[in-house]
Amino acid sequence: MKKIVIEGNHAVSYGAKAADVDVIAAYPITPQTQVVEKLSEMCASGELNAKFIKVESEHSAMAAVVGSSAAGARSFTATSSQGLLLMHEILHWSVGARLPIVLANINRAVGPPWNVWTDQNDSLSQRDVGMLQLYCESNQEVFDTMLHAFWVSEQLMLPSMIILDAFYLSHTCEIVEVMDADEARAFLPPYEPKHFLSPEKPKSFGNLTTPDFYYELRYQIDRDLRKALDLMKEADDRFEKLYGRSYGIIEEYRTDDADMLVVTSGTVTSTARTVIDELRDVGKRVGLVKMKLFRPFPTEDVRRILRRAEKVVVIDRNIGFSIGGIWAQEIKAALYNTNIDVPVFGFIAGIGGRDVTPRVIKEIIDQAEHMDVPDQDVYWIGVKNEQLHHTR
Amino acid sequence: MEVDTVLEIRIHGRGGQGAVIASKVLAAAFFKEGHFVQAFPAFGVERRGAPVAAFIRVDQSPVRLRCNVYEPQHLIVLDPALTETIDITEGFQESGWILLNTHNKPDEFDYAKSFRVATVDAFAIAIRHHLGSRSTPIVNTAILGAFARCTGLVKIDSVVDAIADAVPFNAAGNRQAAIDAFEETIMYDPQLQTR
User: Fold this and answer.
1) Cβ of B169: how many Cβ atoms within 10 Å?
2) Which of A113, A249, A305, B128 has the fewest Cβ atoms within 10 angstroms?
């Protein structure tokens, strides 16, 4: 193991190398390009013994790893934004076919208008595909989560998406302790599929399936994706014992005695930690809840943590048009049909790469402090009136 | 060096001059001295010749701020002509250094009336060591030697080691450029001058 200073995109590449992937198929797109560049260099130099498949689109990239994964190869791809949307059909396929592919998505806003900066609408719009969705806060978490994702995916035979913010992680260099495949093997043993395509033992995959069978196959996906909650905890525990780092599937930061809990995901979490510390120093009872898993959704953990609060504030770097932030919707749904009666304030911030500074987070907390209950289902923070006049 | 709170540095350059690489190398130099670091470019679509910026944060504990740098303590300017087209001092904290790549002396700049200014002729040093071409010398390694000199925040040895790790070819020339720049930096502190 060694510590190096690398950008988030290279943390993905080193993670794929540590996972000893067999096949990589990917198409470059800003801000994901360095992931693919580094992996192609590693394959060319022999540092990584994997087949690198060049393709002409993201649809083909995902289709190629569906093929390689069905043949029993540990398979990886990476994309962003429009590229992920182009993969959409094959994402569903990878779930239905029960293939443990890992995909890294760099969160980038969706066009038009064209925008290469970060927000979560690309990955969150894949909500019902059936892949795990794992959001990361630091480059170290990106590297470590690559290994978690392969292990859990191969236990369940379901694909995973690991997600990092454009630029705030993808292009930001920081210290990452990387390991090679030999060191990672104690956590992630080689992939041994039970079923795979082989000329010696012909099988068919994904053929026409009547209502007599399709229904149960869907039931099994729903049942198994829920198992990922316990498996992610198990992976996190094992990883901590072996390498000393742990994240949990949901993290409480300074939530003791908190009246207000602020719920975040991605890099907003990291900046919010500094705000929570500052407000705690002046006696404010405010805490932070970091969401790592979006799918499966950690409903029981959300209920257990949020039931202690008097107010919940959710910061969403995404928008479900006409209904509000997507994390806020999920959290409200988790609290329904329970005896928990806590107001949930949904705030939108940072869409399209608008900077989420400590000041923005403080403004959100301040606004929620001055209300007893929300009078709108969503609050857009920092909308510039002069821009509205330009674009009306 | 002691970093009590987070140290923030901004590098101005033009697309192709290596400002982003310089930010990574400087971060690596601080990392070699046991600090926690973060380096990132101004998030945009870079074009050759257009003004670009890159940032470094240094702290004694992991850097948690994940937003842009608005109030840098130190400035590094790779192309002196940028001072005519953009306000390089935007958000600048008066206590720090403005390091300019130029053959002029610090007190020839208006900045020197109120700020600490250091200059180094990184173009000449880069040409001396065959870094880039005579018309477009690559100055990003030389300037880091000057940064070590004027701020004293990082050792020249750490900068040279970080350059050796990062530069794929002519490593010797790049290392010596940083050392030469360290020697040739001219510093001006308006508070220490008698007029």
Assistant:
1) 7
2) A113
Q: Are residues A255 and A236 in the same domain?
A: no
Residue B81, both tokens: 């002509």
Put simply, whether the predicted model's pTM sits higher than 0.80 gets the answer: yes
Which stretches within chain B are classed as H helix? 19-32, 82-85, 122-128, 140-151, 156-166, 171-184
Which structural domain range is residue B20 located in? 7-187
Final residue in a domain of this structure, among A203, A222, A243: A243
Counted domains in chain B? 1
> Of B111, B127, B51, B125, which Cα lies nearest the Cα of B85?
B51
Instruction: For residue A206, give the CATH number of its domain.
Output: 3.40.50.970
Flag whether residue B63 sits within 8 Å of chain A, measured between CB atoms.
yes
Residue type, A349: A
Residue B66 host element (H or E): none
Does any domain span residue B194? no
Look at residue B159 and tell me if it is in a domain: yes
Supply the ipTM of this predicted assembly.
0.94
A 178-237 → B contacts, CB under 8 A: none
Residue B9 and residue B57: Cα distance in Å, rounded?
7
Contact between A126 and A133 under an 8 Å Cβ cutoff? The reply is yes
**Direct distance between the N- and C-terminal alpha carbons of chain A, in angstroms, rounded to an integer:** 54
A353 C-beta neighbours (distance < 10 Å), count = 22
**What is the total residue count of chain A?**
392
> Which candidate from B28, B66, B70 shows the least CB-CB separation from A270?
B66
Distance CA B142, CA B144 (A): 5
Tell me how far apart the alpha carbons of residues B4 and B128 are, in angstroms, rounded to a whole number: 38
Range list of H helices, A170-283: 181-184, 211-243, 268-281
Q: Which of A137, A142, A139 is nearest to A173 (CA)?
A: A139
- Which residue, A47, A39, A37, is CA-closest to A15? A39
- Condensed to tens digits (0 to 9), the pLDDT of residues A309-355 reads 999 999 999 999 999 999 999 999 999 999 999 999 999 999 999 99
Q: What is the mean pLDDT of residues B113-128?
A: 96
A156 and A292 co-located in one domain: no
In a domain, B1, yes or no: no
Q: Are residues A61 and A84 in the same domain?
A: yes
Give the range of the structural domain holding residue A36, as residue numbers without chain letter: 2-243
Beta bridge partners of A11: none
**Domain count along chain A:** 2
Nearest residue of chain B to residue A138 (CA atoms): B64
pLDDT in tens, A11-61: 999 999 999 999 999 999 999 999 999 999 999 999 999 999 999 999 999
